[in-house]
Every structure is written in C-alpha cells, then in structure tokens.
Amino acid sequence: MEDFGCQMNKNDAELVVGRLRDDGFIRCESIDEADVILYYACSVREHAEERIFGRLGALKRLKAEKPDTVIGVMGCMAQNQKEIIFKRAPHVDLVVGTQRFEDVAEFVRELEHKDRVIAIDGGEVSYQRDITQRPVQHQAFVTIMRGCDKFCTFCIVPFTQGRERSRDPQSIEDEVRALIDDGVQQVTLLGQRVNTYGLDLNRGENLARLLDRLGKLKGLKRLQFITSHPTHIDEELMRVIRDNPVHSRYLHLPVQTGSDRILKRMNRGHNVESYRRTIDMIRRVVPDMSMATDWIVGSPGETDEDFAESVQLLRDIEFQTSFVFKYSVRSGTKAARSLPDDVPTEKKKERNQILLAEQEAMSKRLHQARIGEEHEILVEGISKRDATRWFGRTSQNWIVVFRAERDFTGEFVKVRIVDVTALTLFGELV
Ligand code: SAH
Ligand code: SF4
Ligand code: F3S
Fold first, then answer.
1. Domain ranges (residues) in the chain
2. Nearest listed ligand to the Cα of residue 332
3. CA–CA separation, 323 vs 252, rounded Å?
4. In the prediction, which pLDDT does 257 show?
5. Atom of ligand 1 at shortest range from CA of 227
6. Using one digit for the tens of pLDDT, what is the confidence trace for 38-60?
7. Which of 151, 155, 160 to probe ligand 3 with, by most ligand atoms within 8 A of CB?
8. Do 374-429 and 2-119 fall under one CATH topology?
9. Cβ(153) to ligand 2 under 6 A?
10. Labelling 3: which of 44, 102, 175, 261 has CA 20 to 30 A away?
11. What residues contact 197, with CB distance under 8 A and at least 6 apart?
12. Which sign, positive or negative, has the C-alpha torsion 30, 35, 37, 38?
C-alpha cells in the first residue's frame, strides 16, 4: 500500500491497512514480495493522477510474470477515474472508491473467482480504526467529517468525496481520549472544510463547540485543525482558541487568489474585502495567530493585473506559509465545462515562481522578527540534515531546530530563537 494526496487520504489509507491486517494480511515493504499492491491516490491535479498511471505502467511486467498479484487503485482517483483506469492500465484488477474502502478485503477475495472488481457507489464508510497503529507515536490525525458541499468551480473534491457529513462529536471525543491514553500529545482534526463541521447535524454543533469540548480533555497538549474555508470563521471560534493554550496558534485559510473577478469565477463565496475583514477579526482576538494559505496561479482568465493583486494580498496579510498550485483542469468540474484553460503553461510557471519568491522573502522577514523570543516546542524527531540536531514545532507551526544532549522526541521543551532562514528557526534550549 502506498498513499498519495492530502492528510485525509492518508488517514483513510491507514484505515484500509488496519482492515486488511484484521483480515490476516501482512504489510510488506517491497513490491516484489507483495501479493496485493494498492495505491491510495489523489485527483486534485492532473499531475497527481499521471504519477499513479506512471506507477501502474511500471507494474505491467510484474503482472505478466506473476498474474495472481492483485493490483488496485483506491481513494479519490478511483472515484474520479472509475473504468478509465482499466482502459489505461488493463492489468489493474481492483478499483475501490471513497465510499467502499472498508470492504477492501472482501473485494480482494472476490478476485479469486473474478477477473476484475470495481466498487464505487452504494456504501458509506465509518471512522472505526485501530488507534494503536499510527505512523508517529506522539501525534495523530482524526477525521471529523467527510465530503465538501462548497463546489468551488475548479475543484474535484466534492465529486470524489461526496456530500458533507459530520461525525458524531461523542465518537470524536472517544477517539481523541483513546489516543491520549495511548500517549498522543498532539491531535490534528481533519476535514475538507473543517470549519463547517457540525452544521449538517442540525443540532447546534459547530467547530467552536467541538474544540471547546476536546480542549478540556486531560493530557492533550496541542490541538489543531485543517483545512478551513474563509467563510464560517467567526469570533466564537477565535475566542475558544484564545481562551485555551492547548489550541494551536495556526490557521490554514486558503484564499486562492487576490482578485475579486477570479474569486467570483471560482465560486469561493468570499471576496478580498471580506477575507481581509476575517483576518483583521482573527488577529484582533488572537494576536499571535500564524496564517497559512493556498494559491492557484494561472486560473482561467487570470491576467497580469489579477496576479498582481495576489502578490499584493500576500504582502498585506503577511502570510507565514503559502502553498502555491498551478491551475489544472479537472474534468467534471464547472470550470472544465465553462472556463477555458487559457493561461499558457510558461505563464503559470512564472507566476508560481514569483509567488514562491515573495513568500520566501516574507517568511524570512517574519522569522527574523522572532530572534530573541522564547518558544515552547513539541519535539518531533532528529533533523534530516544534521544528525546532531533535533527539531520541533511551536504552537504557530514554526519549525525550530536545536542541539540537545538527549532525545526529546514527544516532549515539550523551551527554546530561545538565535538564528533563522526562510524555512527554519534555530534555537537554543532554555
Ligand atoms: N478543502 C481544501 C482544499 C483541498 S485541495 C480547502 O478548501 O481549503 C487543496 C488545494 O489544492 C486547494 O486549496 C487549491 O489551492 C488546490 N487546488 C484544488 N483544485 C485545484 C486545481 N484544479 N488546480 C490547481 N490547484 C487546485
Ligand atoms: Fe474544494 Fe472548495 Fe471544497 Fe475546498 S472548499 S474542497 S477548494 S470545493
Ligand atoms: Fe486529493 Fe482527494 Fe485529498 S482529491 S487532495 S486526496 S480529498
């Protein structure tokens, strides 16, 4: 099993691995040993899907030599491409969409007497998982809702993940409590539009109430959530965050573009002015909130003037982090039907570079202002570049690298910031 895509996809892939393990399957690391090869794959941009088709292509020979090997595609890409996967990669046996992944073991068994299985519709998945099986010991992700009802015109997610469905708050609390009991210190709540959590339950539940409830659980050290949409961010939510230090001072709030004209075409439901007002409110209530965002460059009809407005917005808001994506047509979306992909690839690349450079300069400037400050960090492990150093994150999600005599992984330590780059802060233990 190999997974791609967003954190929600990764979490679902973990859930599938758990189901297979319950059924007696054993996870192996190399493809040559495997009897079942599964890709849990993403559809959000064309590049993501092409990468998987590339991997599948490379398995053709293996399948010819060992015809009993099961090759499957799961998740958003299965949902989106359905039979097309069999057409483009005829050696694939199994295609399982986002509503049916829990039954994967059964589908693998069906393949003993069938050539192919495709399972897309007609199911619903639970959130049941074996919490002891997680990649990192001291932190965990918890899915609190599925689907998205926003239908931004460029986006495939509402089609791959279906309607918005919130999970029952008690079941979320039970899972978080079990994770804490098992040694987890930091929990990240997951949803595609996590700040509309609870609204579909029609009983007064919302994200603010959920955070308040989970924030009170004994033993939890840090709680955060991704990803939010710029509408439905209110003062109640910010006050809950302000009033309890367990809540991360980090908000990922994708704006996509600084142009009102493009925002309208995207059906984002907000304009630049309302986004600015939301940020003002957030910073008034929680002054040390660190902001991250997503941008799409080269959207249909995006002119140099539209793009200049994105650059201006990045500077004005002073984002800490930007994730920049080149527009990619997704067949089935409204944009694919009605908005021609008219920005040349070279232009997209150029705007991508410009925005990344702007962000780098901004991050460095914001980081420089941290020199001399003391911050509490949760230590995540040993630095990849330098085995004598460790790294962790502040509540604002800033990465801090520091030297230490022993392994502090999973612990909170206090550091003083002494040096910075655009990506990293360097600290000394206090
Ligand atoms: N639910 C999240 C976004 C999920 S997709 C949210 O609304 O914030 C993650 C990011 O991928 C989006 O924020 C957007 O910036 C980007 N993205 C989505 N569809 C895209 C497309 N067709 N082309 C390029 N980028 C896209
Ligand atoms: Fe896609 Fe928009 Fe939903 Fe985010 S809010 S998942 S961008 S449709
Ligand atoms: Fe990709 Fe599906 Fe996530 S399309 S971004 S894996 S919800």
1. 2-119, 374-429
2. 1
3. 10
4. 98
5. 8
6. 999 999 999 999 999 999 999 99
7. 160
8. no
9. no
10. 175
11. 144, 145, 166, 189, 191, 205, 206, 207, 210
12. negative
C-alpha–C-alpha distance, residues 144 and 419, integer Å:
38
Residue with CA closest to ligand 1 atom 1: 192
The CATH number corresponding to 2-119 among 3.90.1750.10, 3.40.980.10, 3.40.50.12160, 3.40.470.10 equals 3.40.50.12160
**Ligand positioned closest to the Cα atom of 158:** 2
- pTM score of the predicted model: 0.96
Say yes or no: CB of residue 44 within 6 Å of ligand 1: yes
Atom of ligand 2 nearest to the CA of 148: 3
Q: Which atom, in ligand 2's list, is nearest to the CA of 155?
A: 1
Sequence length of the chain is 430
Cα-based distances in Å from 423 to 156, 367, 427? 30, 8, 13
Mean of the pLDDT values across residues 251-269?
A: 98
Q: How far apart are CA 131 and CA 404, in angstroms?
A: 31
Tokens of 251: 């908000």
Q: Which CATH architecture has domain 374-429?
A: Beta Barrel (2.40)
Q: What tens digit of pLDDT does each residue of 359-409 get?
A: 999 999 999 999 999 999 999 998 888 878 999 999 999 999 999 888 899
DSSP secondary structure letters along 29-69: S-GGG-SEEEEE---SSHHHHHHHHHHHHHTHHHHHH-TT-
Residue 328 near ligand 1, beta carbon < 6 Å? yes
Tell me the mean pLDDT in the region 187-202: 97
Half-sphere exposure of 336 (CA within 13 A, CB side): 11
Q: Which two tokens stand for residue 37?
A: 């090869």
